[in-house]
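REQUEST ID: PR-0412
SUBMITTED BY: lab tech R.K.
PRIORITY: routine
TASK: structure prediction, single protein chain
INPUT:
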Amino acid sequence: MIKFKHKGNFNSTERFLKSATKVNYRQILAPYGEAGVAALASATPMDTGLTAASWEYDIIEKNGSVSIVWSNTNVVNGTPIAIILQYGHATRNGGFVEGRDYVNPAIKPLFDKMANDIWKAVNP
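STATUS: complete
OUTPUT:
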């Protein structure tokens, strides 16, 4: 047999959880979406500038969670150019063009600030 005994209450936990459900995460994330687009655009390797100008974001609310998604709409012959710039690609003659990690360094500072600001919003 297992028995539980406790003293006190869960008032602090309940208060935290109630405040977390009242936060407008879309409003908090929107400026980060825009800042992410700007950071990705400035970090994108440029030839014509089309890929750099093709970043966008969306905030998705689903099943009680909120996500921010950055995407790039520059697709040539079914190939997403931002992806091949990031990870590299094969050439017609059997060679390989090395990718350049430009996405992670551009977006990491934004993730750090976003996590900090969201924590402050739910834990005033």
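NOTES: The chain has a mean pLDDT of 87.
REVIEWED BY: pending
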